[in-house]
């Protein structure tokens, strides 16, 4: 005679003690919005002089150059117009009170660590509300000063030349105030 289904059900009142188990993992950063980024040595090996020249290497970007060297340079991403591009320099939004468009030709690559382009905004939850107001965002991150052998000051002098007797001098000064606080100033 076959056994009934009730005979094969195990008892449910048994208690088992399990050994402790610890799970450790690192959280990987995933961007919801795809990012295009140039940073570090790759940014320096491009052979460009300004942020506008470096941004030319991103897809979907059109550079509008009004006047060559020293002229206004703006970007247009996905044909939305320059007024829809937010530019953030170390987290601070840049703007022009006259026309609202940022001239990207005035920012040098000498003190720049990375340039990022987002179709939308960063995927960070802790950001200013102004970050959400742009259809496209360009984030410029400057280099953090590095001091060796107990030095308190770093100086960097540069001189670039071009055609038609174009000369572009630059100076970068970095000063360590304390072990965790430093400042830098640069001009071209």
Automatic annotation (TrEMBL):
Keyword Transmembrane on entry: yes
A single GO molecular function term of this UniProt record: siderophore uptake transmembrane transporter activity
GO biological process: siderophore transmembrane transport
Major localization listed first in the record, in broad terms: membrane
Origin organism lineage: Bacteria, Pseudomonadati, Bacteroidota, Bacteroidia, Bacteroidales
Subcellular localization, as worded in the UniProt entry: Cell outer membrane
Residue span(s) of domain TonB-dependent receptor plug: 33-125
Membrane topology summary: Multi-pass membrane protein
Keyword DNA repair part of the UniProt annotation: no
Keywords: Cell outer membrane, Membrane, Signal, Transmembrane, Transmembrane beta strand, Transport
Organism, as annotated: Candidatus Coprenecus stercoravium
GO cellular component term, pick one: cell outer membrane
Family: Belongs to the TonB-dependent receptor family.
Protein name (record): Plug domain-containing protein
InterPro entries, per database record: Plug_dom, Plug_dom_sf, TonB-dep_rcpt-like
